[in-house]
């Protein structure tokens, strides 16, 4: 069921909007442009059942996961962001900047109450806060295919915001 909003209001408010309409115990978050292929959803469900995980996160950086359609600069930025985060925060998950995830609904609601970040760092904070609150996280390797239409919002301002957010999380977790 599509529940459109009048205009773009940001990722966090999109999550809140989606939770209002979700009727089940689990919520799958994914890019609507199909960069995240729905074929991985059954694997997320299997992984959740197998380990009774609170969150199952798609990872481009483990197993047979990967990224297709990105130039070298974009790949380096993503890998670099994940590497720096691993060193500073030790979150116990391999792909912190991705957004293809399955959440227990009540866990997602709790995390939304705790998270303060905006933009690129928001996905990272969700995992860091989840670990801080003792939630369990499983991972499923995924293939990410860059969007065919539209453009990435990742630019200089987003990178600076990411670094500020990373340092804030380092200081507060």
From TrEMBL:
<dbReference type="GO" id="GO:0006488">
    <property type="term" value="P:dolichol-linked oligosaccharide biosynthetic process"/>
</dbReference>
<keyword id="KW-0328">Glycosyltransferase</keyword>
<dbReference type="InterPro" id="IPR039528">
    <property type="entry name" value="DPM1-like"/>
</dbReference>
<comment type="subunit">
    <text>Component of the dolichol-phosphate mannose (DPM) synthase complex.</text>
</comment>
<dbReference type="GO" id="GO:0005789">
    <property type="term" value="C:endoplasmic reticulum membrane"/>
</dbReference>
<dbReference type="GO" id="GO:0046872">
    <property type="term" value="F:metal ion binding"/>
</dbReference>
<keyword id="KW-0460">Magnesium</keyword>
<dbReference type="InterPro" id="IPR029044">
    <property type="entry name" value="Nucleotide-diphossugar_trans"/>
</dbReference>
<keyword id="KW-0464">Manganese</keyword>
<comment type="similarity">
    <text>Belongs to the glycosyltransferase 2 family.</text>
</comment>
<dbReference type="GO" id="GO:0004582">
    <property type="term" value="F:dolichyl-phosphate beta-D-mannosyltransferase activity"/>
</dbReference>
<comment type="function">
    <text>Transfers mannose from GDP-mannose to dolichol monophosphate to form dolichol phosphate mannose (Dol-P-Man) which is the mannosyl donor in pathways leading to N-glycosylation, glycosyl phosphatidylinositol membrane anchoring, and O-mannosylation of proteins; catalytic subunit of the dolichol-phosphate mannose (DPM) synthase complex.</text>
</comment>
<dbReference type="Pfam" id="PF00535">
    <property type="entry name" value="Glycos_transf_2"/>
</dbReference>
<keyword id="KW-0256">Endoplasmic reticulum</keyword>
<keyword id="KW-0479">Metal-binding</keyword>
<dbReference type="GO" id="GO:0035269">
    <property type="term" value="P:protein O-linked glycosylation via mannose"/>
</dbReference>
<protein>
    <recommendedName>
        <fullName>Dolichol-phosphate mannosyltransferase subunit 1</fullName>
        <ecNumber>2.4.1.83</ecNumber>
    </recommendedName>
</protein>
<comment type="pathway">
    <text>Protein modification; protein glycosylation.</text>
</comment>
<feature type="domain" description="Glycosyltransferase 2-like">
    <location>
        <begin position="4"/>
        <end position="111"/>
    </location>
</feature>
<keyword id="KW-0808">Transferase</keyword>
<dbReference type="InterPro" id="IPR001173">
    <property type="entry name" value="Glyco_trans_2-like"/>
</dbReference>
<dbReference type="GO" id="GO:0006506">
    <property type="term" value="P:GPI anchor biosynthetic process"/>
</dbReference>
């Amino acid at each position: 069921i599509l529940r459109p909003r009048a205009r773009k209001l940001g990722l966090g408010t999109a999550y809140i909007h989606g939770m209002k309409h979700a009727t089940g115990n689990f919520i799958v978050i994914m890019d609507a442009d199909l960069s995240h292929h729905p074929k991985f959803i059954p694997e997320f469900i299997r992984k959740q059942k197998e380990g009774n995980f609170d969150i199952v996160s798609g990872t481009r950086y483990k197993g047979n996961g990967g990224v297709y359609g990105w130039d070298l600069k974009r790949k380096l930025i993503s890998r670099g962001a994940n590497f720096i985060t691993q060193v500073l925060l030790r979150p116990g998950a391999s792909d912190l900047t991705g957004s293809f995830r399955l959440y227990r609904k009540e866990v997602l609601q709790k995390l939304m109450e705790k998270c303060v970040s905006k933009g690129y760092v928001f996905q990272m904070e969700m995992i860091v806060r989840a670990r801080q609150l003792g939630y369990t996280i499983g991972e499923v390797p995924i293939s990410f295919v860059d969007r065919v239409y539209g453009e990435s919002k990742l630019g200089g301002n987003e990178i600076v915001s990411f670094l500020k957010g990373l340092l804030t999380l380092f200081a507060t977790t």
